[in-house]
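Handout for the seminar on molecular recognition.
Each group receives one record of this type.
Step one: identify the two inputs.
Step two: read the structure output and locate the region that could contact adenosine-5'-triphosphate.
Step three: write two sentences on what you found, then compare them with the reference statements printed after the record.
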Amino acid sequence: MRISHENPSVGGVARVSGATLTRAAPPSVVRVDHLVKRYGATTAVADLSFSVRPGEIFGLLGPNGAGKTSTIEIIEGIRTPDSGTVEVFGLDIQRQRRAIQGRVGVQLQSTTLFPELTVQETLGLFGSFYPHARPVRELLREVALEEKAHAFPQDLSGGQRQRLALALALVNEPELVILDEPTTGLDPQSRRALWDIIQQLRQRGVAIILTTHFMDEAQILCDRIAIVDHGQIIAEDTPAGLIALLGASAAIAFQVVVPTGATAPDLAMVRQLPGVEDARAGLDQLILYTRQTEPTLIALLHLAEHAGVTLEHLQLHTPTLEDVFIKLTGRQLRS
Ligand SMILES: Nc1ncnc2c1ncn2[C@@H]1O[C@H](COP(=O)(O)OP(=O)(O)OP(=O)(O)O)[C@@H](O)[C@H]1O
Ligand SMILES: [Mg+2]
């Protein structure tokens, strides 16, 4: 299954002083078409297509091994696809790679830094690769590393190292920035600091592709998200559009404790409760998706009482992208 919405407001027809001019739709910043990548017997990317529009943050969200890094490394020109095409700024990634690379900034899943160069020297070195590099001082300010200008990589915290890696991706004032799990391994405060920097980039009109397996990150940062699983896009939309797929206004999660002699209500029974849109068995809990929270809750408590079981760790939450992933795949994103 693949769900996607095209935005009809992009491109098309412009009306000027009563006259109608037809103009070409603005090219996508990135257009990926039927991409396939295999490593021996493993198909990492299985016929994947999407496009990224100017000025948006586009997220590839999926579990370990879904094919996110393989996909973006092909867009970066680091890997070659087995089939399919990738255009960046309307140029072919295989034939016009050099023309593209000066306009793209890349943060790899892990960045190797030179241990003998300070933060400032590292930025200066990367800048020297480009004819029009941004001033080091400006980059340091953008990623809030001014105080660490003279520090060596090994003396930086994880969050500071990630911010340096991001600054390296921004050296050439890119129009497109590609970030592979920019916040993995960071504490909540450092994650938020990086989110701020990424959101400021979007405000300047930079298009961003990021990969993540953090649902909250995708939900907060991304204008559109492609959920990737086993090398395929299984759903693509805005965060709100994806959550609307559930058709539910709340999720009710709980554990059932069954005393000896009692029988636990099964999934089919809870699915029959009023308002319930869907029900799933998680690792150690049941999750109900409901359109009518109160009637469902009341009926659930009655059902438990009638069956002689108790409900523990009862939680009510607004549906999230995690719920969407579970609905589409039957699995949790992080096993
Ligand atoms: N160089 C390689 N040689 C062989 N197999 C590879 C190679 N790189 C990736 N793979 C396999 O391809 C699949 C997709 O890997 P990829 O790194 O693209 O996933 P990912 O979505 O980025 O995962 P993660 O969230 O763990 O970073 C996995 O099954 C992985 O083991
Ligand atoms: Mg990866």
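Reference statements: The two ends are 22 Å apart (CA to CA). Residues 39, 42, 44, 62, 64-70, 109, 213 surround adenosine-5'-triphosphate (ligand 1) (CB under 6 Å).
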